[in-house]
Amino acid sequence: MPPSALDEISQLEVVYPLLFKLQNDEEESSSGTKLRTHCGVLEFTAEEGRVYLPQWMMDTLRLSPGSAVEVINVALLHGSLVKLQPQSVDFLDISDHRAVLENALRRFSALTVGDMITIEYNNHEYKLNVLETQPSPSAINIVETDLSVDFAPPIGYVEPTAQSGPGSQASNSSSMANINHPTSSMAKDIRQKEDAAKGEAASLRFQAFRGAGVRLSSGADKPSSVRSYASSTADNNEKQSQDISPDDETPVPLDLPIGTLFFGYKLIPPPGSEPTDANDANEEDKFQGEGRVLRQRRKR
User: Fold this and answer.
1) Which of 57, 194, 233, 252 has its C-alpha lying 20 to 30 A from 283's C-alpha?
2) Over 9-78, what HEC string results?
3) Are 151 and 184 in contact (CB under 8 A)?
4) Per residue in 121-175, pLDDT tens?
5) Any residues with CB less than 8 A from the CB of 227 and at least 6 apart, and which?
6) What is the separation, in whole angstroms, between the first and last Cα of the chain?
7) Most distant CA atoms of the chain, gap in Å
8) pTM of the predicted model, to two decimals?
9) How far apart are CA 215 and CA 288, in angstroms?
10) H or E segment at 176?
11) Residues facing 28 on adjacent strands
12) DSSP state for residue 148 in the 8-state scheme
C-alpha cells in the first residue's frame, strides 16, 4: 500500500494487527454479492494510487492489472475453526498435513469463505477452497490464534466401497453409526496418516531410562524376574561353597597396623625335614648391621 495510507490510518483509532477488506464493485459472485476477501498489509512502500496483491487474490476478485479495488479497514474475530476442500486428490499424498498447513498459513492474516488459497509443498502447488469459518461465518483473523482445521473430500475423491459378504451386517451397522455421527472419510485418512507418521517418529526417537528399577534392600516388592535371579544366584553360591574343601579356602586378608611391612610368612619346613645350621645362621644374621649417616650432627 502507499505511504499516504499509513499516514491516514495512524490518525484513526484502529485495531491491530491491521486487517483490510478488498472488494471488487464491478464483479458479483454467483449469489449476487460483491466479490470480496480479507488480508493484511506487508509494507507501505507502493506508489500512490496503487496496491499490490498476490495472484491468488486477484483471481478470487477477478481483477486484472490496473483494475480498481476498494480497500476498507476492518476488525475480525480470532478464528477457532476453518473447513478446507482440496481441489485435487494429490493433496492426500502429503505425509504430514498438519505441519504443511502450519507452515503455509503463517503467510495469511485472514481467511474468507469462498477464498481459493494456494500453498506450495515440494515444488508443487495445492489449491484449497475455504468452505466454512468459525466463530464468524464470513471471515476470521488467524494471527496468533489456535486454529482447528477440518477437511472436506477433495474434488475427484472416491469413497471406498464396503465389501459384501458375512460382514455385511457389521458394515451396515457401521454405516448407520456414520450417519448418526457424520465425519469426513478424507479427514480420517489424513488423521490416520498423521498418526502413523507420529508413531514411526516416536519409535525412532531415543528414549532414556527404559529399564526396570531394582531396589537395594531385599523387600517383598521386587519384580519376579529379580527374585528368581537372586534365588538362583544364592543357590549357585551355596552349591559352590559346599563343593569347596577346607584346604581350598583362600587365606584371610592381612590386618596389619599402619607403617608395618610384610615380607611373607615364616618358613615352616614340611614334616620329616630339619633345617640346617647354615640356614639358622642366616636367619640370625639378618638385619644385624649398624646405621651410618653421611653428615655428623654438630655439638652445641
Assistant:
1) 252
2) HHCCCCCCCCEEEEEEEEEECCCCCEEEEEECCCCCCCCCCCCCCCHHHHHHHCCCCCCCCEEEEECCCE
3) yes
4) 888 888 999 999 999 988 999 998 888 888 888 888 887 776 555 444 444 444 3
5) none
6) 108
7) 135
8) 0.51
9) 59
10) helix 168-180
11) 34
12) E
Grid cell for residue 5: 495510507
Residue 151: which region, alpha, beta or left (left: phi > 0; alpha: psi -120 to 50)?
Answer: beta
Rounded to whole angstroms, how far apart are CA atoms 255 and 268? 21
> Tens digit of pLDDT for each residue in 57-95?
888 888 888 889 999 989 999 999 999 998 888 888 888
Q: At 165, list the grid cell.
A: 459378504
**Angle 185-204/97-104 helices, nearest 10 degrees?**
100
Q: Which three cell numbers stand for residue 202?
A: 516416536
C-alpha cell recorded at residue 110: 485472514
Do 81 and 131 form a contact (C-beta atoms < 8 A)? no
Q: Is the peptide bond before 223 cis (omega within 30 degrees of 0)?
A: no
Peptide bond into 135 cis (omega under 30): yes
Rounded Cα distance between 216 and 227, Å, is 12
